Amino acid sequence: MATQPVVRGKLRFDDFELDVRAGQLRRRGVRLRLSGQPFQVLEILLERAGDVVTREELRRCIWPADTFVDFDHSLHNAIARVREVLGDSAENPRYIETLLAEATGTSAR
Questions:
Q1: Contact assessment for residue 51 and residue 3, using Cβ atoms and an 8 Å cutoff
Q2: H helices then E strands: how many in the chain?
């Protein structure tokens, strides 16, 4: 997922714009419902567009070490929500690709 340069806290890709400061995702100017952990996951992936972001990196960024949570379930739900809002799918990814390997990670295209 090629992003354009950050403009005043905004990350742009395809028809989307993630306004980090306002906590909003827009597509062609229309605000989409995305908040909380899914918003944070998308922000991290966009900031590292084209790179593999490991599950551990996402955990460290979103869930502090002293937080007790079913991490696998929470991350799965966050990624699923991002895919839903973007109209993406795990089977035929356009924006987010999950890589299965020894060091499992998620990559923004």
A1: no
A2: 3, 7
CA 29 to CA 27: how far, in whole Å?
Answer: 5
107, containing H or E segment: strand 105-108
Strand pairing category for 24-27 and 16-19: antiparallel
Cα distance between residue 1 and residue 60, in whole Å: 22
pTM score, two decimals? 0.80
Q: Which amino acid is at 79?
A: I
pLDDT tens digits along 2-34: 555 445 689 999 999 999 999 999 999 999 999
Continuous segment of H or E residues that includes residue 58 = helix 55-62
**Token duo for residue 104:** 């499992």
Would you say the C-alpha torsion 50, 100, 98, 77 has a positive or negative sign? Answer: negative
